[in-house]
Amino acid sequence: MSDREIMNAKTASNKKSIIFRDPVVERVCDKFIQRSDLGFEKYGRTLHSERTGGHKDLVGYLNDVQEELMDAILYIQAAREELADNQACNCCAPV
Q1: CA dist., res. 14 & res. 31, Å (int)
Q2: Which DSSP string corresponds to 7-33?
Q3: Is CB count within 10 Å lower at the N or C end of the chain?
Q4: pLDDT tens digits along 22-35
Q5: Whole-angstrom distance, CA of residue 3 vs CA of residue 6
Q6: Cα 77 to the chain's mean position, in Å?
């Protein structure tokens, strides 16, 4: 990617005006945008430019997905254990 393309990518944005009927969906969309911005700051390219620029192939994407899902399962287990610990503490707490 040329310096000019990088600068254009940093300053370019596609603007959309969206009216959300569900605030939960709006918050999730906001998080996607924040995540995209963070990824661009960290890696200096968008996911689109990564794909079309040949920076990662299909196997690389599949490895990323697998690693993320493995992390998600670990987070689920940790959250379950946190809930169990909290419930155990609440059962024994004096009233």
Answers
A1: 17
A2: HHHHH---------S-HHHHHHHHHHH
A3: C
A4: 999 999 999 999 99
A5: 5
A6: 19
Q: What is the pLDDT of residue 90?
A: 81
Instruction: Round to whole Å and give the CA distance between 32 and 27.
Output: 9
Neighbours of 45 (CB within 10 A): 19
Q: How many CB atoms lie within 10 A of CB 91?
A: 7
Helix, strand, or coil here: 54? coil
Q: How many CA atoms lie within 13 A of 47 on its CB side?
A: 11
For residue 6, what are the contacts with CB-CB under 8 A and spacing of at least 6?
Answer: 44, 45
Closest of 3, 6, 2 to residue 43, by C-alpha: 6
What residues have CB less than 8 Å from 16, skipping those under 6 apart? none
Is 1:50 a contact under the CB 8 Å cutoff? no
Q: How far apart are CA 52 and CA 46, in angstroms?
A: 10
